[in-house]
Write a structure and sequence with these properties.
alpha/beta, 11 helices, 47% helix, globular
Amino acid sequence: MAIKRIGVVGSGIMGAGVAEVAAASGFEVVLRSRSQEGADSMLAGLDASLARQVRKGRVDDDTATEVRARVSAVTTIDELAPCDLVLESIVEDLTAKQELFRELDRVCAPSAILATNTSTLPVVEMAMVTDRPDRVCGIHFFNPAPAMSLVELVPSITTSDTTLGDARAFVEACGKTPVTVKDQAGFVVNALLFPYLNNAVRLFDAGVASRDDIDAAMKGGCNFPMGPLELLDLVGLDTSLAILDALYAEFHDPNFAPAPLLRRMVAARRLGRKTGAGFYDYGR
Ligand SMILES: NC(=O)c1ccc[n+]([C@@H]2O[C@H](COP(=O)([O-])OP(=O)(O)OC[C@H]3O[C@@H](n4cnc5c(N)ncnc54)[C@H](O)[C@@H]3O)[C@@H](O)[C@H]2O)c1
């Protein structure tokens, strides 16, 4: 199947990043946000990112103009009808995602692939609310999508080989490296990463070391580019909590039980970079 037009639902961190990647790779992109404000802010973010790349000499003016022209932002779901593949990147909440899949199934052509960027939730439970469970697949990009090379491809037990092949072709056309992972919570990366991040919050809460020393220890001692608390702020503490809740619900492993401080910070809307404060203050 020739995939030409991509729909992206959700104009948060990941939706905006994936829209940029797909447009830069030559796909027409229709980004759906629920509000005009969300759509405008996503387009403003794309303009700023392209201007930054032109300033740094990574792309020329003409290319940036072409990439920008390939992206349109809409607020109604019906405008996703002409898309060959729709990737949802909304809040990490199964009920919200299932509601969206029902709507996408109604709006999109039967041949269209409906994909989820979920970090942990069961792909099969999204597939089964549609009339095309064979055309539903997980396509898990990493944050920030333009910079990270990996994409986890997550076929559920209902995904057809054709769909998986089409999804792989899309990912490769985006210049990313796919790995194929079974539909179980956390896939590979988050199943391994989140116990580590969660335990960093526990160490911090127990006063074993300061925030800065925990991050410095893991950067200096393991050569990680970011410390765990910085990384949690980048991912978003609400998304991180949802990931840990889903992992714990699936495996009941105590390492996945969210650190109480994480839940309290989410309750206080200290969600990390996206709200201007998390473990660090971003001065907004
Ligand atoms: N943040 C990361 O590092 C990361 C990495 C890979 C995948 N993901 C996954 O991508 C998805 C989005 O994460 P994000 O970090 O972009 O979150 P975000 O909080 O930045 O954005 C979420 C978006 O969903 C919208 N939204 C919220 N509730 C909705 C609903 N009921 N219907 C439609 N839209 C709704 C919000 O308005 C917002 O635009 C999640 O499934 C997450 O697990 C996140």
